[in-house]
Amino acid sequence: MFIILKVGLMEEEKLHRLCNILVIITIFLVAIGLIMVFSASSIRIPQSEISMYHYFLRQTLWAAIGFLALLIVSRIDCNWLFKNSFYILLFCLLLTVCTLCFPPINNARRWLIIGPLSIQPSELLKVAFIIYLSSFFSKKDDDKLKIFLHGFFPPIIILAIILAILALQPHCGAAIFISFIFLSMAFFGRVRIKYILLFFIFVGISIGTIITTKSYVMERIVNMDNYQSQHSIIALGSGGIFGKGPGLSEQKLFTLPLPYTDFILPIIGEELGFLGVLFIICLFVLFAIIGFSISVNLSSIFGSLLVFGLVFSIFLQAIINMCVVSKLIPVMGLPLPFISYGGSFLVSSLISIGLIINLTHSSSKIKDHFP
Amino acid sequence: MIEYQKRAVFIWGLLIVITIIIIVNFFYIQVIKSKEFKKTASKIHKGIKVYIEPRGTIFDRNGEILVISNSVASLYKIQNKRFVWVKRRIPIEEAEASGIDWVVEHKRYYPKKKLCGSLLGFVRLEDDPGKIEGLSGIEGSFDSYLTSKPYILKVDKDGRGRILYSKRDKKKACDIFLSIDSKIQFIAEDELKKTCEEFDAEGGVVLIGYPKTGEILACASYPEFNPEIFSSYNPHLWRSLKKENIRNKGISWVIEPGSIFKPIIAGILLQEGAVKPEDRFFCEGNMKIKNKTIICVCKHGAQSFKEVIANSCNVGMSQAIERLDNKRLLRYLSHFGFSEKTKTGLREEEKGILPKKDLSGIRKANISFGYGISATPIQILMAVSSFCNNGILFSPIIVRSISRDGKMIKEWQPTPFKEVLSPSVARIVKELMLGVVEKGTGKNAKIEGYEVCGKTGTVEKLKGKRYDPSRVISSFIGFFPKDDPEIVIFVMIDEPKKAHFAGIVAAPCFRRIAERLIFWERIKVPEI
Question: Which of A243, B15, B439, B467 could form a disulfide with B460 if both were Cys (CB 3.0 to 4.6 A apart)?
């Protein structure tokens, strides 16, 4: 692993090859995701009005849209991104604010509902925020970054706004996740450790307030042993090493609720066993290794930061999801990237991949401060 | 190394550690703890289900339902590997809502209420899942056909306990088709009840047969019995029932037939040529045989054998039977099926008793007018039916067929059992019985437009060792039209209090039944 990291600046050809592997892994994960979404969502009672292909077809449509978006994003001018990152963020923020006008689903207003489509703009907001942070940190040189007001304060203000909106939705999992992203981006973006510790305190306070004000979050943390997690573990455990075989999950039979969204990994674990889960983990780890290798070997700071942020974001979500389903941490409401059912998230993940491709190929064109 | 690369390695290291923790955790859950979780999962998703096919339906000859099984649900649980009922016989919707494991059970439902009750018999709900045991009547005698064994299957369930799919072979219970005609049965029960109430009787029987095949069309007993009361939990009601109520007297009541028996004896005597209808007998009102006296109702004086029957003269019969030797008499009686069970297949059926070979003294004379011998109503009915069939005795049929899933598995064909009398003798006996209704004791049984043959009988019941003249069984057996009898009706009224003589008690009941049957066109109108 470290061999790839230590290479330093790689020649472009090698980077492109790594990027291709990354895309292949992505396609692999999306394909596995489609199959498993079909397996987990096709169970119907005879009276059901929804066809057994309903979720599978929708996810396939979203995957198609996602790959189209990937193609488009991989071809746009990255200098434009670099310069207009703030406006992109602003646009996504506005979209997210719009969700508050829509009627709540399951007591949360996270969706923009346009006809049959429901879009979750907070997924796009994550990507936009990463672009903004990369742009922001790469524009400052080391001296300016060391000044708190210049180098760290503006993004904190923006983060606070984002967190406020997410708390209103409410979407605590996303809020905590975005804070983590910010933390790691700041860390990777050479912000002083002192400031980051300060930020820790800030995050601590904000998380503290979220927990104490929103009773359902508290409940989740206290009540780790809830119905969904219990059955998640049972599904995983009953799968054993080799699993029950594709399609033969029992927990998806109305035992584990909504098994095709956040809790799809237990179904994979039940049907394909520990080996199946291990395979998925390995794919994500490989994804992360290659992503980081591309990141540290890019010639521009913006490219480097952005690829790091995107790869880290996807990998972190995967890790959090895995921790949730194996009951290491409380339920956060974060899906498994590329695999879980959910259109906005799949599209935003594929847009991330598109950005990574874009930057791998055109990172050198970006005119930023290179140390 | 450049600053951010250093930091990248740090972050990377952190993630590696977390990833390793995650993998170890998955390994722990999926490999080390797997067995435990598999057990938990199977508790949710595996189960057993007890299936029971409904108990068979009982139909009458026209396909009308007499008893059918309704589906109800019973809740159960498995406690310490043992099957325990939680609640039984509740509506299925209720069971579905309860969330407890349940099994479909069946409840006997009687669409015609107490009609045919004592013949059908009753059932008992057992502790075994879904088992209903028939205890009497058709339900009891054909229990092995009517029940189907419950079977336990391993099934997969979904998260809400709904059963997913299970392959099973259904082995349905059999349906039983009776020869009973529920309309005729209704008329019989109705008239029997009216008569019993009118004369304040203890009970009674009406048997109606179709002489040409030996089929029983009605088998009514009084007091009535509603088998449904055993389906409801009302032990108080159960205790109020006497054995007498439940019994199907038509097949299980062993009685001394009395004068009703005279046509049969007459048939035997005529067959043997011992008497001729024109032979003269003299009745003084009583007759002494070895210091015992046979008494007649009145002094009949000189009379032909035909008049002996018509007047139901005991003395004349006693004189006539002396002309036949004991051995042959007994052989004939057993030919007629007395002291043997008929082949109805009903297990409550009784045999009756024939006297031993020793027929000394008064015993033989007693037999001539139906004392000192005992028989069941159905035996008497079949014996008398043989006169309608040119002397051929049929086995009675109560159950016509048993079928499973529409496929016949057992059938009772009309079986000419024995030729007991020759056709000419049978014809003479019919003439004798016609005389009873036309001129004799059975005038009350006369029906306008028909030649009715019949015989009355008034039997004193035994009280200890003596006959009690205040407790009698008043009976009438008759068939018509004489030339081609369509129907045999046997009425027996037990201990009527307001009147004793059969001509007054039983014969009108016979007539009313017959008239109603004619009215409802259950009997062909003779062409004139």
Answer: B467
Is there a contact between B158 and A371 if contact means CB atoms under 8 Å apart? no
CA-nearest of A94, A103, A97, A96 to A123 is A96
Q: Mark yes or no for CB contact B29/A326 under 8 Å.
A: yes
Q: Write the CA distances from B18 to A48, A189, B12, integer angstroms.
A: 41, 22, 10
Of B16, B30, B45, the CB nearest to A236: B30
Work out the mean pLDDT of chain B and round it to a whole number: 86
d(CA A86, CA A90): 6
Which of A48, A192, A296, A314 should be substituted to probe chain B, the one whose Cβ sees the most B Cβ atoms within 10 Å?
A296
Token reading at A86: 């703030």
Q: What is the mean pLDDT of chain A?
A: 85
Residues B203 and B156 in one domain: no
pLDDT digits (tens, 9 = 90+) for B464-502: 888 888 899 999 999 988 888 989 999 999 999 998 888
- What pLDDT, on a 0 to 100 scale, did the predictor assign at position B231? 64
CB contact under 8 A, A237 and B27: no
Give the domain CATH number at B342.
3.40.710.10
Regarding whether B152 and B199 lie in a shared domain, the answer is: no
The DSSP code for B353 is B
Overall average pLDDT of the B247-261 stretch: 89
Q: Taking CB atoms and an 8 Å limit, are B38 and A308 in contact across chains?
A: no
| In chain A, domain spans | 7-41+54-362
125-184 in B: which are within 8 Å (CB) of A?
Answer: 156-160, 162, 164
Nearest to B25 among A45, A250, A326 (CB): A326
Q: DSSP label at B255?
A: B
B31·A240 Cβ contact <8 A = yes
Judged by CB atoms closer than 8 Å, whether chains meet at B4 and A304 is answered as: yes
Do B491 and B356 share a structural domain?
yes
A-B C-beta contacts closer than 8 Å: 124
Q: State whether B354 and B376 are in the same domain.
A: yes
Q: Which residues form the domain of B199?
A: 182-519
Band (B127; pLDDT cuts 50, 70, 90): low
Task: Establish if B21 touches chain A: CB-CB under 8 angstroms.
Answer: yes
Q: Nearest CB to B158: which of A5, A184, A254? A: A254
How near does any CA of chain A get to the CA of B143, in Å? Answer: 38
What residue type is assigned to position B331 of the chain? R
Domain at B160, CATH number = 3.90.1310.10
Whole-angstrom distance, CA of residue B459 vs CA of residue B474: 6
What is the spatial distance between Cα B523 and Cα B492, in angstroms, rounded to a whole number?
A: 22
Domain shared by B141 and B209, yes or no? no
Closest partner residue to B40 among A234, A288, A292, by Cβ?
A234
Among B158, B178, B198, the domain boundary falls at: B178
Backbone CA torsion sign across A165, A167, A170, A171: positive
Please tell me the distance from the alpha carbon of residue B504 to that of residue B48, in angstroms, as a whole number: 65
DSSP string, A87-112: HHHHHHHHHHHHHTTSPPBTTB---E
- Residue B29 belongs to a domain: no
Cβ-nearest to B15 among A273, A278, A288? A288
Please give the tally of structural domains in chain B: 2
Shortest CA distance to B13 belongs to which of A292, A99, A191? A292
Min distance B351 CA to chain A CA atoms (Å): 59
Residues B146, B233 within the same domain: no
